[in-house]
Design brief:
The complex is a heterodimer. Chain A is α/β, with parallel strands linked by helices. In chain A, 45% of the residues lie in helices and 11% in strands. In chain A, the strands form 3 sheets. A 7-stranded mixed beta sheet of chain A has the order 2-8-7-6-5-3-4, with helices on both faces. In chain A, strand 9 and strand 10 form a beta hairpin. Chain A is globular and about 60 Å long. Chain B is an alpha/beta fold. Helices cover 43% and strands 12% of the residues of chain B. A 7-stranded mixed beta sheet of chain B has the order 2-8-7-6-5-3-4, sandwiched between helices. In chain B, helix 6 crosses helix 13, helix 7 crosses helix 12 and helix 14 packs parallel to helix 16. Chains A and B meet through helix 1, helix 2, helix 4, helix 6 and helix 7 of A and helix 1, helix 3, helix 4, helix 5 and helix 7 of B. Chain A: InterPro entries: Aminotransferase_I/II_large, Ethylene_sulfur-biosynth, NHTrfase_class1_PyrdxlP-BS, PyrdxlP-dep_Trfase, PyrdxlP-dep_Trfase_major, PyrdxlP-dep_Trfase_small.
């Protein structure tokens, strides 16, 4: 925390966000990113044990009372909740530590060539230029003004439906359909809009599970799930391990095993969470797998949450198949399927905070709609996006261009890694590749993996995400995001990895 | 492919999902439904229901529109391409530095510079609804309680309790002393909780009060602060209407009380604010938690990941709120217009024979219809509320939905409509009272 203040002083002197050139702006951005990534949840491959966590809580209370000078003379500092205590702990996960360090010392080709290159954040910057242009050409018209130029603020100032304006839902439903190849249509009345996919998934957990219940989650999975799904809900995540031997494919047998083991422990499983396209692997589930998942869920009478946030970020030859598409064509029980989406990845607008819960279950929708009040989308932002998303010609051009650019980067990046003898799993979507560096770690276990991660970060000055942070059962795998880089940066990345690996 | 078995029970939902704690079946919200089905419109539906149950401020929209017209760069991110890009990618839970600074300075201006706010203690949330829930998650565990003076905003039942599992134990206030909080009432509420084996984690006050429309006196704030210090619990001061006080000298923020004590013991105090009422921008979803407690600030910040404000909105408002000339003019003009409106409704009600609690803030008045009740009970109040809704076609909020211990009080909002509409509403009330009077004269009740 104390590190932030002097850095902020430096950045503020440059005139803030609007003025100033790209470089201080980028610095400022990376810096803010570091601040944002100071989360504390520690993704642990072991199931949480009550005794150790309460010991941690006790430690925390003691240290906080030592440092709390103003409590001298009273009965001790006023206490916060157990939930707060667990979040107040500093980060221990490499996922967050790496993000922090990279933002403290961000690489810049000209201004900071020895800085840390950020490959640990799945953000797509490749096509922001298209959006910028659209905004500059269309903003004034779309924000508040009508055709006659008369400003009327009441359309965005007053209370709007807290789960999103109907116009926005229609626009987002249309976008989802377009981005998924128009093979499926989305019903706007089945949408609940939230301020980002983060609250979307938390809200769904609140609706589908009670404290202490669990979700089955295939590994490796996005480290953020540990925070988003567990913190305030009290829900547990049970990892279902997938292996490289079958390309990390999801097996129903493994799900079944995990389900039965949970039952033996007395733990109630309420659903399965899949991410499709997968983060961090970048593969997509085929129709067969989706059907077997539905069968499994029906047999156990549990829910399926399908996080499809990368649905539009595909670059392979396969077509993406949404859960919604399967349900449209078959006579499955739709009440157990819920889809998560958002505009942070496919539309590169994480700052605007737009997430989606899409459900076929009217009771879930009713509850989620009411809960959306705690995480609503800002009205002026909805206004701009309604305009942008309804410009379907622009959106089509954007989707196609972004796909081409992601593919180009992926090919170049994977080829670069291959030069070093590092193979990636065959992937067709996402903003990253899943690289096998198991041959480069010593010993062949989590410790060896983290040592390599540490060396790459501190000596190589590259931040990538180690598989253990994603609960991967096999050591040596790393997620490398490449959509924040420019093409010229790729050789630099490869050289740096080479330097570390060859010592 | 799948064979459906009709005998299978439907896939289950959580307790949170099926709970009634959202409270949307209460009269507070039933009146809204009646309005939605038959909304008043000056020209298109002059006999429709007039919405007087929504505390929204529409009296100063012209000032906002004027600003936006003259400062289009606020919405365009300037001509430099880089401005937009960074903003589009910005999802840092610390929030835009420029916006936090502007927020802190706006809060200072509202308090006439009598309190200082540090931008680094400002935590941003998507609305005060989220801020209150977030604070509750942080300050209390499931099963614990917050003490809240009655009558209180009906939304608290949902916002403070639903997902958090925390309880509300009321601090009873009554008209004998204009519904002010007393030390006795505080103690009684605390003991009440203890007797039920419930752990009290804090007191939550709304200052100025919703639904009373009054500011809390300095001496009462001192007493409340002493009480929470003695019990070593938290104090949350929801100051969402702090900019809607009719006379600037009459509002005392808890921040001022703390500063007078050199901020001693301030780590138990947290202020909630928002732009939904004072600035009339509820659609923007802008709320904040201002905490004097470092741990609460850090934790709230992290937890705000679930409720971040759009970076675009932050940018727009940073521009607006850091324009001190604009904000000073806005605060003064808005205050004056609200005062005028308040005067108008009070006078109109008085002419109709209805008295209100003497108020000095907010977007509503606290009306006393107890003389009209057939029986001095909650049922009597609801019966009266029903006839006002269906005969007079006015949606007002019954005191029972605010947990008022005395039946017959109603909250009536006056800032979410034009002056003409307010005149129509007052006229309807006048006619209603006249009819009642005539009925009584004729021996009917």
């Amino acid at each position: 925390m104390r590190l932030i203040v002097p850095l902020q002083g430096v950045v503020q002197g440059r005139g803030g966000l609007i003025l100033g050139s790209i470089i201080p702006g980028a610095l400022y951005y990376f810096f803010q990113l570091y601040l944002k990534r100071c989360r504390s949840a520690k993704p642990n491959s072991n199931p949480p044990s009550p005794s150790s966590s309460s010991a941690q809580l006790a430690d925390l209370s003691r240290s906080s009372s030592r440092s709390n000078l103003s409590s001298r003379g009273s009965v001790g500092p006023v206490r916060v909740s157990a939930r707060a205590n667990s979040i107040a702990k500093p980060n221990a996960s490499p996922y967050y530590i790496g993000l922090e360090m990279a933002s403290e010392d961000p690489y810049d080709r000209f201004d900071n060539p020895d800085g840390i290159m950020q490959l640990g954040l799945s953000e797509n910057r490749l096509s922001l230029d298209l959006i910028e242009t659209w905004i500059l050409e269309n903003l004034e018209r779309s924000m508040i003004g009508g055709a006659d130029g008369h400003l009327n603020i009441s359309g965005i100032a007053t209370y709007q439906p807290l789960d999103g304006m109907m116009e926005m839902k229609i626009a987002v439903a249309g976008f989802m359909s377009q981005v998924m190849g128009t093979t499926v249509s989305f019903d706007p009345s089945r949408l609940v809009l939230t301020s980002g996919a983060t609250p979307a998934i938390e809200t769904l957990c609140f609706c589908l599970a009670d404290q202490g219940n669990a979700f089955l989650v295939p590994t490796p999975y996005y480290p953020g799930f540990d925070r988003d799904m567990k913190w305030r809900t009290g829900v547990e995540l049970i990892p279902v391990h997938c292996r490289s031997s079958d390309n990390f494919a999801l097996s129903v047998t493994a799900l079944d095993q995990a389900f039965n083991q949970a039952r033996k422990r007395g733990q109630k499983v309420r659903g399965i969470l899949i991410s499709n396209p997968s983060n961090p692997i970048g593969n997509m589930l085929n129709k067969e797998t989706l059907y077997s998942l539905l069968d499994f869920a029906r047999e156990k009478n549990i829910h399926i949450i399908s996080d499809e946030i990368f649905a539009g970020s595909t670059y392979g030859s396969e077509e993406f198949v949404s859960m919604a598409e399967i349900l449209e064509s078959e006579d499955f029980d739709k009440n157990r399927v819920h889809i998560i989406y958002g505009l942070s990845k496919d539309l590169s607008l994480p700052g605007f905070r737009v997430g989606v819960i899409y459900s076929f279950n009217t009771s879930v929708l009713a509850a989620a709609k009411k809960l959306a009040r705690f995480s609503s989308v800002s009205a002026p932002t909805q206004r701009i996006l309604i305009s942008m998303l309804s410009d379907t010609r622009f959106i089509q051009r954007y989707i196609e261009t972004t796909r081409e650019r992601i593919k180009k980067m992926y090919v170049a990046f994977a080829a670069g890694l291959k030069q070093l003898g590092i193979e990636c799993t065959k992937s067709s979507a996402g903003l990253y590749c899943w690289a096998d560096m198991s041959g480069l770690i010593r010993p062949y276990n989590e410790k060896g993996e983290l040592e390599l991660w540490d060396k790459l970060l501190k000596i190589g000055k590259i931040n990538i995400t180690p598989g253990s942070a994603c609960h991967c059962i096999e050591p040596g795998w790393f997620r490398c995001c490449f959509t924040m880089l420019a093409e010229e940066d790729i050789p630099v990345v490869i050289k740096r990895i080479q330097r570390v690996v060859e010592t | 492919m799948a064979i459906e078995t009709d005998q299978q029970p439907p896939v289950g939902l959580s307790r949170v999902a099926v709970s009634e704690t959202h409270g949307e079946d209460s009269p507070y919200f039933a009146g809204w439904k009646a309005y939605d089905e038959n909304p008043y419109d000056e020209s298109k539906n002059p006999s429709g229901v007039i919405q007087m149950g929504l505390a929204e401020n529409q009296v100063s929209f012209d000032l906002l529109e004027e600003f936006l017209k003259q400062h289009s760069e606020a919405s365009i991110w300037g001509n430099k391409i880089s401005g937009f890009r960074e903003n589009a990618l910005f999802q840092d839970y610390h929030g835009l530095q420029s916006f936090r600074k502007a927020m802190a300075s706006f809060m200072e201006q509202i308090r006439g510079g009598r309190a200082k706010f540090d931008p680094d203690r400002v935590v941003l949330t998507a609305g005060a609804t989220a801020a209150n829930e977030l604070l509750t998650f942080i300050l209390a565990d499931p099963g614990d309680a917050l003490l809240v003076p009655t009558p209180y905003y009906p939304g608290f039942d949902r916002d403070l309790r639903w997902r958090t599992g925390v309880k509300i134990v009321p601090i009873h206030c009554d008209s004998s002393n204009n519904f002010q909080v007393t030390p006795q009432a505080l103690e009684a509420a605390y003991n009440n909780a203890e007797a039920m084996n419930i752990k009290v984690r804090g007191v939550l006050i709304t200052n100025p009060s919703n639904p009373l429309g009054t500011t809390i006196q300095r001496s009462v704030l001192e007493e409340i602060l002493d009480f929470v210090t003695r019990k070593n619990i938290h104090l949350v001061s929801d100051e969402i209407y702090s900019g809607s006080v009719f006379s600037s000298s009459e509002f005392v923020s808890i921040a001022e009380v703390l500063e007078a004590r050199n901020n001693k013991g301030s780590e138990r105090v947290h202020i909630v604010y928002s732009l939904s009422k004072d600035l009339g921008l509820p659609g923007f979803r802008v709320g904040t938690i201002y905490s004097y407690n470092d741990k609460v600030v850090t934790t709230a910040r992290r937890m705000s990941s679930f409720t971040l404000i759009s970076s675009q909105t932050q940018h727009l408002l940073a521009s607006m709120l850091s324009d001190k000339e604009f904000t000073q003019n806005y605060i003064e003009t808005n205050r004056e217009r609200l005062r005028k409106r308040y005067g108008m409704i009070i006078q109109g009600l008085r002419v109709a024979g209805i008295e209100c609690l003497q108020g000095n803030a907010g977007l509503f008045c606290w009306m006393n219809l107890s003389p009209l009740l057939e029986t001095p009970t909650r049922e009597g109040e609801l019966a009266l509320w029903n006839s006002i809704l269906h005969e007079v076609k006015l949606n007002i909020s019954p005191g029972s939905s605010c947990h008022c211990s005395e039946p017959g009080w109603f909250r009536v909002c006056f800032a979410n409509m034009s002056e003409q509409t307010l005149e129509v509403a007052l006229d309807r009330i006048h006619q209603f009272m006249k009819r009642r009077c005539d009925k009584e004269k004729l021996g009917h009740v």
